[in-house]
């Protein structure tokens, strides 16, 4: 079973088959998601929050994200691995975007990169695809621009829908192989999905995109507390792990662990 290719995702759209993408930042989650048949893994700059404990995605650097990309690629056989370009590593223009992306492809072993922005990134997307690097675009609410967008808010409501649509056409025209639509009204995502020849990947964008993506710790309930409305928790990993840690500590205190079977005679 070979690696998933961008053309497989295009073929899935043509057949009307939906697929799921998850983030991954380490070998265990990556190999479990590979075994589970997840076709695309995103080493998101959301590692800033979910691995490094930063308040936003802005601080994470290429040097911090690269080893995580390498780990996910090394741990998997089948998924297409997409590396997110961190804030500040591609905005200067095509030359900077190319320099950063080559590092993710060459040192990280990524199969594609992702960047945030529509028309403003068209030149970068064209340069990268021209250099043989598949690009996933990201529109709607783009976390790296939270200070311009005024916080975590739905984008593309009312008249602003035309802006998101124009950005979607621009990234497809520039050569992107797919586009993430984050926090846009379901009807807008549906229209973009219908209009574009490339797959749309929704997060908080309703049921009518070609694919969906979630941060894995949100999907699996490792992160607790109030999450965004678009998250569905499919497990309670935080509860499972907390219970395991408590039982382990209890057994150590009681002298029940280690037992004879854990001890070398
Ligand atoms: O970094 C990330 O996790 C993302 C996805 C939520 C699309 O960009
Ligand atoms: Na991201």
From TrEMBL:
Q: Is Cytoplasm set as a keyword in this record?
A: yes
Q: Name one GO biological process term.
A: pantothenate biosynthetic process
Swiss-Prot/TrEMBL catalytic activity: (6R)-5,10-methylene-5,6,7,8-tetrahydrofolate + 3-methyl-2-oxobutanoate + H2O = 2-dehydropantoate + (6S)-5,6,7,8-tetrahydrofolate
Gene Ontology terms, MF aspect: 3-methyl-2-oxobutanoate hydroxymethyltransferase activity; magnesium ion binding
**What keywords sit in the KW lines?**
Cytoplasm, Magnesium, Metal-binding, Pantothenate biosynthesis, Transferase
Q: Where do the annotations place 3-methyl-2-oxobutanoate binding?
A: 45-46, 84, 114
**Cofactor(s) annotated in UniProt:** Mg(2+)
- Return the EC number: 2.1.2.11
Task: Look up the record and report any one GO term of the cellular component aspect.
Answer: cytoplasm
PANTHER family associated with the record = 3-METHYL-2-OXOBUTANOATE HYDROXYMETHYLTRANSFERASE (PTHR20881:SF0)
Q: Give the protein's recorded name.
A: 3-methyl-2-oxobutanoate hydroxymethyltransferase
């Amino acid at each position: 079973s070979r690696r998933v290719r961008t053309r497989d995702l295009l073929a899935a759209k043509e057949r009307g088959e939906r697929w799921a993408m998850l983030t991954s930042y380490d070998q265990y989650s990556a190999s479990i998601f590979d075994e589970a048949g997840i076709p695309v893994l995103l080493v998101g700059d959301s590692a800033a929050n979910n691995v490094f404990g930063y308040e936003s995605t802005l601080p994470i650097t290429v040097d911090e994200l690269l080893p995580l990309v390498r780990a996910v690629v090394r741990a998997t056989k089948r998924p297409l691995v997409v590396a997110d370009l961190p804030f500040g590593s591609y905005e200067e223009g095509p030359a900077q975007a190319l320099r950063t992306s080559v590092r993710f492809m060459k040192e990280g072993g990524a199969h594609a990169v992702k960047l945030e922005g529509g028309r403003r990134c068209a030149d970068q997307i064209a340069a990268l695809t021209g250099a043989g690097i598949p690009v996933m675009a990201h529109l709607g609410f783009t976390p790296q621009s939270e200070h311009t967008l005024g916080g975590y808010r739905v984008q593309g409501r009312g008249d602003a829908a035309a802006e998101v649509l124009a950005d979607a056409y621009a990234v497809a025209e520039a050569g992107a192989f797919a586009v993430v639509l984050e926090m846009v009204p379901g009807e807008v995502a549906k229209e973009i999905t219908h209009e574009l020849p490339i797959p749309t990947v929704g997060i908080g964008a309703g049921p009518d995109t070609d694919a969906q993506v979630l941060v894995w710790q949100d999907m699996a309930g490792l992160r607790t507390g109030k999450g965004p409305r678009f998250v569905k928790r499919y497990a309670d990993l935080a509860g499972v792990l907390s219970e395991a840690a408590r039982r382990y500590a209890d057994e150590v205190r009681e002298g029940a662990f280690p037992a004879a079977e854990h001890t070398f005679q």
